[in-house]
Design a protein that fits this description.
The complex is a heterodimer of chains A (575) and B (266).
Chain A: E1 6-17, E2 25-33, E3 37-41, H1 48-56, H2 58-61, E4 65-73, E5 76-77, H3 83-86, E6 90-93, H4 106-116, H5 121-134, H6 150-162, E7 168-172, H7 180-195, E8 199-203, H8 207-210, E9 216-221, E10 224-229, H9 231-235, H10 238-241, H11 249-260, E11 302-312, E12 318-328, E13 332-336, H12 343-350, E14 358-363, E15 367-368, H13 374-377, E16 381-384, H14 397-407, H15 412-425, H16 441-453, E17 459-463, H17 471-486, E18 490-494, H18 498-504, E19 507-512, E20 515-520, H19 522-526, H20 529-534, H21 541-551, H22 562-571
Parallel strand pairs in A: 3-8, 3-9, 6-7, 7-8, 13-18, 13-19, 16-17, 17-18
Antiparallel strand pairs in A: 1-2, 1-4, 4-5, 9-10, 11-12, 11-14, 14-15, 19-20
Helix pairs in contact in A: 4-5, 4-6, 6-7, 11-22, 14-15, 14-16
Chain B: H1 2-7, H2 17-20, H3 23-39, H4 43-59, H5 63-88, H6 91-114, H7 117-126, H8 131-142, H9 144-159, H10 170-176, H11 178-201, H12 220-242, H13 250-258
Classes of the chains: A alpha/beta (575), B mainly alpha (266).
Chain lengths: 575, 266
Amino acid sequence: MREQKAIVSIDNLSFRYASSRRYALKNVNLEIYEGEFILLMGPSGCGKTTLIRCINGLIPHFYSGEYSGKVRVFGVDVQESSPEKLSEKVGTVFQNPENQLFCLSVRRELAFGLENRLLPPPKIKQIVEETLEKFRMKHIADKAPYELSGGEQQKVAIASILVMRPKLLLLDEPTSNLDPISAVEVISFLKELSSEGISILISEHRSWLLAPIVDRVIIMDNGHIVLDGSPEEVFYNDKALGIGIEIPPVVEFVKTLSRKIRLPKNWRPLKVHELSEIAKYVSPIKCDSLPQSPPIKAEGKTILDVKDVWFKYEGGDYALKGVSMKIFKGDRVAIMGSNGAGKTTLIRAIMNLVKIEKGSIVFNEKIDLTKLPTSKIARFIGVCFQNPDHQIFSETVFDEVAFLLRNLRYPENVVRQRVKRILTMLDLDKYAESSPFMLSEGERKRVALASILVGDPDILILDEPTLGQDRFQKERLKRLLEQLTLQGKTIIVTTHDIEFSLSFFKRIILMSNGKVIADGSPLEIFTNENVLRSANLIKPDVVKIRELLKDIGIGTPLHLSPRDLALEIISTKGA
Amino acid sequence: MAYSFLKAFTFKKGETPIHRLHPLSKMLFALIMTVIALIQQNFTIFMIALTVTLAVAAIARVLRRLLQSYRLLISLSALIFIANFVTLWDLDFSVSMVLRLLLMASAFSVTFMTLNPDEISVIFSRIRAPLDLGFIFSSSLRFIPTLTRETEMIIFAQRARALELDSGNVFNRVKNYIPILVPVIVCAIRRSQQLAEALETRGFNPGKPRTYAEQPSFSLLDAVFNIVIVIMLLIIVYIIFFSSIHLLTFSEIVSLIMQLPYSTLI
């Protein structure tokens, strides 16, 4: 493959944004060859987005700063070109599909780039129709972006770039805002494009999705490229674990095994079915008839009782259709389901932010939440919504975190004391007097969380807390939540993050189409094919590994994290 | 809330003859109605122009949304009426000022409810106005639904932090909106930056000419519509400035209906 010609060559590139003191990229050297499908990974703030901007010319033409080194794209020096000219060969797809669709119909959207190129209208129409046909988008051709699902929107965004026939496609976390099933949809679309010869560079957190299909993986940390090679080379490298990226479950499973038993050095599977060879190295485990996870029945007091709740948005369909659930004190619950299942609406109903049509929501067995103003409910239920930028407004981090307590009319000395405690707990004390707008996204997310935790709520509700977070940030969040459960807090989370829900939650409630369709332990939920299908969820790799172990006669382990699964089949081996 | 007012200016797809008009015809309609609203003060003419506007709205099937937006205009209308009446003590003039507002708002509302934002840049290119201005205009309309939804999410997030929007005196109430306004503005700026990035990478250059895949064309319908509207304007101009025809004023009509001597009303 390497004899092919380099379409991008980056020579000793360093870049520092004018607004920052830190170098976003430091001495980066990289060559991208024709036809490659590359996955770019790294923890938040590692320089992935900056690298992409250096290739499409947004740096230095849109974002200025200190620039040294050379970037050549298709033989042209980026510094001497412009994003507009580079767009003839390089297409870029961004994270948020909504902010890259300018028109009110898919057809016009696809025409947009070609119109900028001054193509004659009949020619544009022809290309647009061909593209619609080819990517099976005819049925949505006249729809507006807001009438499409997230996955469809992102596919339209990609198609609107493809009409311009780019040779290289850059994608910056294109599936971060999507639920897993839409993410799979977008990624298989990319796979199709790659097989047609387009070169692709994609940055993405979900390695399990891409590891089995890309040719090459590049890992960045702190503005440097730290690993670069085939997915096998990179993910099986011990260094990869030390960086805050997600390792595919298959790799984590095999690596854990290899620490305990001898495995051939060159056996580096990436796909679940490649694991079947494992029968050669591991003997069957004793399949104890261990009890399935204990049933979730009334263990202690019901802290939140949602009964037959119906709700409809003005001019829309019912978003909640008779939702019922009992949450117990000290529960750790993940509410899952595809976009539009009603998860966020349920949170709004609990907080009495929307008036439910029918049903009841009772806190602590006696307080009727549907009759209480939100500002009163905020005393015992804390909700942290998805996007921290939807709530940050203060001049300092301290004031931001103090906002809730001041609204609740706490005396200022209590406010000071509690804000200080929370800031220390979340490692934000050094920023107390800084502007929250100056912080990184991960830090802003922590500020938002602190501004809720400060109220010391009995129930903590987090809406998609792991969105856009890297592995270290997620582990930190898990530790914090662990600590809060020990204090007796009840935690409810809505999430698409399968790994997070499998490894941390005792109970999963699945919603689909405004209804609760399943409620049980992670094991019960994720091994039930029917339930997964009707909730539009995909089967996690870990569950597939478990099924494979059963099929090849090794046994049925009980754990649902790749690491524990591996340890379980080794430890029971000798027994 | 203010949302339902925005709705009266938001495009929705439709298949009516009004929707099919050329974007320039729709703009012309709003402009002519504005001219009619500004050059005269007669109650009868306002009624005729408003009836025409409502008829156009009915054909475009947006009448209901238009009337719903009137609910929000009531308080503003009352304010205008009272301010004028108290200072000038002239019933007819005060009523005209309210109708002026109503006619212009209705005409623009009908135009924007039927004018696809994507077509606005076409108008700008037709009248040789700067392309970036056209793009700013069309994208601000395109993003109204998105920004409305975002504002709602921000309000929910802050209320969940015990923010009470409707508490305290007038001064406090204004202050209460700061935690809403700051994130709304910050998010809009972030969004516009992302939009600009996406535009750059799709080869958009406002300084350069571009083509339009779908050029709306003038049809017979446009000709008929424009002629009718222009003739209406000409007749009104003739009646007001060049003829001695007397048109009934508001107070005359009221006194007629109530069989009162005209003088008691003044």
